[in-house]
Amino acid sequence: MPPAGSLILFLTLACTEAFGQGSVLFVGGGSEDYNDWSDKPYRWLVDHAPNRRIAVLHYSTTSPWLVSYFTWLGAAGDTTFAIPSTSAANDSATYRAVRACDGIFLRGGDQWQYISRWRGTLVEQAIKEVFQRGGVVGGTSAGMAVLSEVIIDARTTSVDPRTALRNPLGAGITFTEDFLGLVPGIIGDTHFFERGRIGRLLAMLGVYRSMTGKSIVGMGVDYNTALAIDPAGRAEVMGAGTVTVLRWRPGTECTLEPSRALSISGMGLDQLTDGFTISLGSGAIGAPLAASAYLPKKFQSALPTLFLDGSSSQADWFSSVGSLANFVHELQPAPDTVGVISSPYLTAAALNVAAALAQRGVVARQLWMSGSRAGDPVVAAAFSGCKGFVFATNSGDSIAGYLDSSTVVGRSFRASINADAPCLFLGNDAKMIGDTAVVGTESSAYAAYYGELSLARGLGVSGAVTAMPRLYENPDSIDNRASGLFWGMGKTRAAFGVALDAGTTMTLRGEYGFVSGTTPAVVIDARAVSLVDFPAWRDPGKPHPRQNAAFVGGVINVVREGQSYRFSDGTLTAAGGIGAPSPDGFTLAQNYPNPFNPATTIRYAVPAACEVHLAVYDLLGRQVGLLVGQRVEAGVHSATFDAKHLASGVYVYQLRAGVRFKSGKMIVLR
Questions:
Q1: What percent of the chain is predicted at pLDDT more than 70?
Q2: Which residues contact 334 (CB under 8 A, 6 or more apart)?
Q3: Domains of the chain as residue ranges with CATH
Q4: SS3 state at 320
């Protein structure tokens, strides 16, 4: 990877050369209308066409409506062309008609259709000539995507964000670099939060660098949002949503392996709303007057062990590798009474959780919570007898108040977790770990766009963290969850945001977050964010603006199964690494390799000489291997486990030293 200075110099020189010619308008998709968000950016396009002559182009159909709209915005003359084939794109009359305009707008659709039909043709040449003589070229959706130097061309598939995170090298990511290329050093993506595409843009950046060795900038433009780029390479955000800029930093690390999930540590993240400007060469950002200083809360280590399950599916919760199995093994060697906390109006899931615990030999106690029970000493006594808690289907608007330290039950709950009783949060209950939770994400498909999300008080068991589970679980709610995460962080000045997909669990122990599951966790580090702002545009007839947030100076990380993220310093530890010791010096690393056949290594650390018991158990709690059963000296140690006598499956290894214990999951794969 080249030094940061050389990257900035390259981009600056490239932008100076290209942007000395014409202007570009990136539009992230959405719908244009009179007296709506689109007026400002589309009028900007008209104003940057020297003679205000606009051509609306598409590979299939014409758009008389857009012609009328541009005329209404001040175009002196405009027309619309459908250019459906390579032969049509090489028609000399079409070439002359397009070249005679000084503003070009590509309507959207499918970027591969633009590339495959127009690449190397007279129409491509005409568009370039308009730009080179100082005209303006814009595009929306796929029409935007084909304007950057590097194009995600979708020649075989429209890359799914979840698939891109799970298997970037097998997600169908392909690029084109020899079409138009009007914006150097950039790869653009559209419908960004609407479709949760931050995961796929991260994967694209990693795949592109692995293929070419080049570190380009990712530019994600939300729907009903535009980025207007002038000839000097100065770009201004316009519209209802955000523009997300992902940039390689000197310390950014990316790991790509066949058939494995993405891993990224330390990618630069700037997210900009209407009125922000950015230099595409240097990356320098200008902020509107409405932006304010971001003073993040200080992260404090979670006292009890917290399991955050990103799924609402009971099949995920109760699977052999699910969060409930991990939670039960946290209670080893002697599973004790677990309280299942739930709303008395949503009982089915909680009853099923209790039954699943019983199947694993754990006594479950139903703790139905309501306002009338928060002061009940009998309920408080029931809480006191629990050695762990599972949160299932609670009301996000009220549960924190019931368990506040001002209530009898709340004090009993707080005493238990202060004594290190682990807690499992299932599905939406995972939002409650922080001081504040974002609620309403399932109320409607347009909740974030119409400003209908709200904040609820959280339990505060892991302060300064905003959690958002179920990221890709339901397509109708992706925008609400992705946008709501940033909005919630911005409103509460959280130091971190964590997005979890269905089937993914993050286990918080002290200052570490350990990830398991098919989809990686996405961790937003806002500790160095300097400025925050919020969208101000209100959709006509709606009382509230779009809910997202601008961040300047953030960092984004992708943490896959077997890795841990250290919240105290933002570092990511690979599978098998012991990492930095925990605050008390007692650490158990993920075994490596994992999965394995037949042997694997387990590393651990103890702060002082002590008796150590390191054993392996099956999912029924039966010991199937003893690795260490003796006194060891302080420091880092390792032990090898040979599983040649075991069948394929999931096993749990547990380290016990004195009264402390930690567990991990391993997979034998024949």
A1: 94
A2: none
A3: 4-284 (3.40.50.880), 303-529+553-570 (3.40.50.880), 587-668 (2.60.40.1930)
A4: coil
